[in-house]
Amino acid sequence: MVYILLLISFLIHVATFIIIRQFKLKLDTYGDMEQDIKEQAKAIEDTLAVYLIDIRQENNELLQRLENARHIQTETEQPVNNVAEDPQPATEAPVEQEPVADLPLSPPDFQPITVDDKVEDKVEQSLAAKALHLQAKGYTVEEIAKQLNKGTTEIELLLKFQQKNQ
Q1: If DSSP codes are grouped into helix, strand and coil, which group holds residue 140?
Q2: Minimal CA–CA distance to 101: which of 57, 77, 67, 75?
Q3: How far apart (Å, rounded) are the C-alpha atoms in residues 144 and 135?
Q4: Which residues have a Cβ under 8 Å from the Cβ of 149 and sit 6 or more positions away?
Q5: Is residue 62 situated within a structural domain?
Q6: For the segment 110-120, what is each residue's pLDDT rounded down to a tens digit?
Q7: Which of 53, 131, 143, 163 is close enough to 139 for a disulfide, judged by CB 3.0 to 4.6 Å?
Q8: Is 111 within the bounds of a domain?
């Protein structure tokens, strides 16, 4: 009787060790997954940082080009004197206006979008709508399939699905 109890105890201990080992393996895989996620997050941060640097560089280049265009525009323009200006009444205080940024209206590489008024909208019926329209006219499944260049099984399924949805 003692031997049987020792054998059962031994088996329970072995099962317990196996279960503990399985739990440890699962914990190790979760730790590895957490490490992988941290590495992926770091890679994403690095990619975004590089992208941000590129955007800053492009913005600085754009600002530089705009500034150059502004200088060229101011150099080519001649000051215009308006003789017919009405002086402001003495009772009102002069209002100071903040200068508005003079951006060039059309940069050298700008091409305006042209609107073509002659284009008409075209409405195409879906395959299901065409099949239902032909079925309503009294065509058979084979005739519908032939007209739409589709298989009869495809048309049958299409019509069955449309009938279920209605």
Answers
A1: coil
A2: 67
A3: 7
A4: none
A5: yes
A6: 676 776 667 67
A7: 143
A8: no
Residue 52 CA neighbour count, 13 Å, CB half? 6
Residue linked to tokens 């317990």: 16
Reported pTM: 0.32
8 A C-beta contact, residue 121 and residue 155: no
Q: What DSSP string describes 82-113?
A: -TTPPPPPTTSPPPP-PPPP---SS-TT--PP
The tens digit of pLDDT for each residue in 18-27 reads 999 999 998 8
Are the CB atoms for 103 and 66 separated by under 8 Å? yes
The total number of structural domains in the chain stands at 2
Tell which phi-psi region holds residue 80, choosing left (phi > 0), alpha (psi between -120 and 50) or beta: beta
Closest to 134 in 3D by CA, of 150, 120, 123, 121: 150
Domain boundary among 48, 76, 104: 76
DSSP run (H or E) holding 34: helix 2-76
Tell me whether residue 95 is in a domain: no
Which residue stretches of the chain have pLDDT < 50? Answer: 82-84, 100
